[in-house]
Amino acid sequence: MITRYSRPDAVAIWSQETKYKIWFEIEAHAATKMAELGVIPKESAEAIWANGKDATFDADRIDEIERTTKHDVIAFLTHVAEIVGEEARFLHQGMTSSDVLDTCFAVQLARSTDLLLGGVDRVLAALETRAKEHKYTPTVGRSHGIHAEPVTFGLKLAGYHAEFQRAKRRLTAAREEIATCAISGAVGTFANVDPAVEQYVADQMGLSVEPVSTQVIPRDRHAAYFAALGVVASSVERLAVEIRHLQRTEVLEAEEFFDKGQKGSSAMPHKRNPILTENLTGLARLVRSAVTPAMENVALWHERDISHSSVERGIGPDATIHLDFALHRLAGVIERLNVYPENMQKNLDRLGGLVFSQRVMLALTQAGVSREDAYAAVQENAMKVWRGEGAFIDFLKADARVTLPHDELEALFDLGYHTKNVDVIFERVFGEG
Q1: 378: nearest Cα among 345, 406, 403
Q2: Backbone angles phi, psi at 152, to 5 degrees
Q3: What secondary structure letter does DSSP report for 187?
Q4: Which residues are catalytic?
Q5: pLDDT confidence of residue 15
Q6: If you write DSSP's letter for every residue of 201-241 in order, what string do you get?
Q7: H/E stretch holding 139
Q8: Phi, psi torsion values for 178, nearest 5 degrees
Q9: Going by DSSP bridges, is the β-strand pair 180-181/146-152 parallel, antiparallel, or unpaired?
Q10: Residue pair 364/409 in contact by the 8 Å Cβ criterion
Q11: CB 359, CB 155: distance < 8 Å
């Protein structure tokens, strides 16, 4: 995790303090149910809660013990015993380390996803506001980076809003899939722990029960989770790249907000660089880098091995913290985005009406010209404009193959024709015209 690209709320979920608090809660909830089932004394379970619920678990002390035990959960339980006292002997009855580790990981990922969903909601709100602001602001649509036909800037943003609606659904589904609890003991048979304990812990921790946990929660769940994060990161990058292109000097249709006192270059004082969206492109790469290791974690040996463990200690905090930061950075960029409608119009007019070529061709076919002949006539005149020889409309009027009356031809160069269905699209995205 890179501190520069992190928010405190996301970092806190992965702190040692939070982790050990979750570990204790898992163990203590299990003890409560075991006491109810008569496996351990009720007063022992009560003492565990009373002595441990407000305790601060000392990470340095746990590390010190682990240097001897070479086992983190045993080191933790040893430290808990130092705090709770002799009743701690009733902790971890019939449980295995993965019961604690995997259930805790599920809690941390679920909590992280709640933050991610909050970030997506902020992005959605910003996109909706700016899309409606520029619902009818004309701009040129580009395919292959080349001028194609007119769109509106609001339509561009509406498309991204629809994409982040999908991102929200993906994250919601990923959270549901990852939020499972395993308290099934060695090799997952419940031989030494009652299944009712697992159900109780799951309920208390806000999780569902893992149907078959072997000795670990199956890692296909985690693979799907990190894949979902990778897709959301790619959506972040797609919008970031669009803004970066629009900020290019020769385009300059939109631009990241440039604060007073901000510097763009150590060498060139005139520079205004798209640093935030460039950061977002890099952060998306970092988040996606977690996907392949998560996929490779699926194939564990038999009922368990720990080849996944070192991977998840890295990708769990890294991917969630960086994506959380990226979503909020993206929202901030959109909220403060400088938009230049006059430059959009200037670029739209740059090719002197070539963006209306399809409409001219279609009108010719409607007037009885074959599609092949109509295409050839329009293209030949368009190429003259590309070469800088004159105006498109003038060439068309002078071409005998273009049989349309001049007033009808001029009417085809109507920007409003291309925006007539904006309301339809907005209703699909936002539920209103």
Answers
A1: 403
A2: -125, 155
A3: G
A4: 144, 265
A5: 96
A6: HHHHHT-EEPS--TTS--THHHHHHHHHHHHHHHHHHHHHH
A7: strand 138-143
A8: -85, -20
A9: unpaired
A10: no
A11: no
- What three-state secondary structure class fits 433? coil
End-to-end CA separation in angstroms for the chain: 43
Q: Which residues contact 186 (CB under 8 A, 6 or more apart)?
A: 96, 192, 215
- Does residue 224 contact residue 314 with C-beta atoms inside 8 Å? no
CB 346 within 8 A of CB 253: no
pLDDT beneath 50, residues of the chain: 433
Q: How far is CA 253 from CA 242, 257, 340, 342, in A?
A: 11, 13, 5, 8
The pLDDT value given to residue 247: 96
Element containing residue 310 per DSSP (H, E): helix 307-335
pTM exceeds 0.85 for this model: yes
Packing angle, helices 275-288 and 220-246, rounded to 10: 160
- The answer to whether 183 and 99 have CB atoms below 8 angstroms apart is yes
6: left (phi over 0), alpha (psi -120 to 50) or beta: beta
**Taken in order 42, 47, 53, 59, is the CA torsion positive or negative?**
negative
Nearest to 73 by CA among 263, 309, 243: 309
Half-sphere exposure of 20 (CA within 13 A, CB side): 23
What is the per-residue pLDDT for 263? 86
Integer-rounded Cα Rg, in Å, for the chain is 30
Q: Are 72 and 80 in contact (CB under 8 A)?
A: no
pLDDT tens, residue by residue, 36-95: 999 999 999 999 999 998 889 999 999 999 999 999 999 999 999 999 999 999 999 999
